[in-house]
Amino acid sequence: MNMPSECHAPSRTFPQQDGLSGAGLVPDKILDWESLLRRREEWRNEGAVVVWTNGCFDLMHAGHVRSLRSARRLGDILVVGLNSDASVRVNKGPTRPIMCQDERAEMLAGFECVDAVVIFEETTPETALGRLQPEIHCKGADYAPPHGKPVPEARIVEAYGGQVRYLPLLPGISTTELVARIERLGSDPPSRSSYGGQAALAPPADTTR
After folding, report:
1. 73, 112, 117, 175: which is deepest, by most CB within 10 A?
2. Residues 118-154: tens digit of each pLDDT
3. Domains of the chain as residue ranges with CATH
């Protein structure tokens, strides 16, 4: 099964609204940087704790949902930084992303626990963190010290007085694994699902014979 080499869906521009989240509609949560920074000042004046997490969020799965909920519980406002299509291709390879940035942003904004979504063009979040300066920056547990992967942006967060917090991961669940499952389904449909042993893609047994 061949995955697309680039996104072809038309780009959409959502209307921006000043102030806080207004009616709570999905478009109200998808912000450009200018709008986000205006809201950041309002949140700061209100004493709200802003939490940031970022990623590709390409093919949403249970691990993403748990991570977002866990991040939201750490503060008052959850801002999700979304890698642009171009930065995903650099980080993940030419066959990604599967879903365009506008579609990924819209899905993230549909979560009640997410207060704002902003797209960033860089391959890493240092510049975005320096602009927003959230009180808390969230990473997956695979980055947690002492044996986790490096967190180069930690020095930026610590320099302005923020914290880096680490979120639990759901083992064996990732977009890469989902893509591999889909490709296996296309080439050799299994009779049972890897999610829990339930029958999948196979007709029920005929017990009358």
Report:
1. 117
2. 999 999 999 999 999 999 999 999 999 999 999 999 9
3. 26-187 (3.40.50.620)
